[in-house]
What does this fold into?
Amino acid sequence: MKNTGKFNEYILKDLKTDEDIKEWINIGFEEFLQDNDLNAFVKALEYAVRAKDSILGMSKKTGISRSNLYAIFNGEQQPQLSTALKIIKELGYTLKVA
It folds into this structure.
């Protein structure tokens, strides 16, 4: 799931259910924990946002500007934890430490 900077429509088509999306986010988070590369987790969040809503919709719901979301998802800016948590919450999920 490495962030290549390009969005893959084929992956998006596989994220049909909440379970699919949650698993995708969890995989991205696990990759981050393994190699300390935040890109996998951020890319997983981008796919989740696009599968459930849109960048514009998420921007309106979270109050995070659309340009900031694009910068985060394109790897131009690292999100703060509070930003990632806002996105996860707005997607309807929670973050657990296991």
Remarks:
- The chain has a mean pLDDT of 88.
